[in-house]
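::Amino acid chain::
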Amino acid sequence: MMLLSDWSKMKKLLIGALALLLLSGCGSITADSGSDTSTEIGYDRSEAKVALSEGSAIAVDQQMIQTASITLRVDDVAQSADDISQYVASIGGRIDSKNEYRNPDSSEITSTDLMVKVPSEQLDAALERLKSFGDLEGFSTSASDVTLQVIDLDARIASLETSIASLKKLLDEATTVTDLLAAETALSQRQSELDSLKSQRTYLADQIKLSAIWINIYPKNALDAVKPIGFVAGLEKGWEAIVDFASNLTTWTGLALPWFGLLLLLAIVLRLFGAISKSRRKR
């Protein structure tokens, strides 16, 4: 009886151990399965970071955004603006914006602001040529290094493209409605993110390829009142002032003569009237 009782206890222990072993194995399989599913469907930004690290190890050309600003004084604002526009077009550039300001009395163009884009590899030559269109009054340049932004965007785009390819494969292999809906939702989100990143990359590439130049064009005569002109030039300006005064004096004289004639006529009539009145009194 003692041996039978011991055997019964050992049998229960063995059954319990076997059950625990089976449960442990099932849990491990479930965890592995869940891990594979999340890897296929989910998108971890760490993938982009890994790609960025790998890309950073590769030699990448420096990516720069260059801009410049020029202020010119010219004899003819409208003609100079047209000449600059033609030159920019001739080197493969474009005019992004143009603002003209006019004199309300004469409709004459008093100043023009241009924002042009020129190929970045021709920026230095273009700036030297643009300076020759008039008297240079102001000039500045700036550059911004966007190499890391380009590498980051390229890595994230590559990672998303890989994720989308995996999701499309899952979509084809989906066997349940739940899996199909999950794959479609994830695919839609990834595609939206990819389109946004590609738009950013295109905009950045345009800024790198074409450098922006802001050009302000003003007439020279607007500066004459404050610009030192020298002794000889001062004599010329003085003579011009005398001529202008004489011209204005002639104009005012012409305006006044009819009034003098009218006043003289009135004086003669009044004098005759007074003489006639005086002769009548004597009689």
In short: The chain is about 65% helix and 20% strand. Residues 231-282 form the longest helix (52 residues). The CA atoms of residues 80 and 280 lie 79 Å apart. The two ends are 187 Å apart (CA to CA).
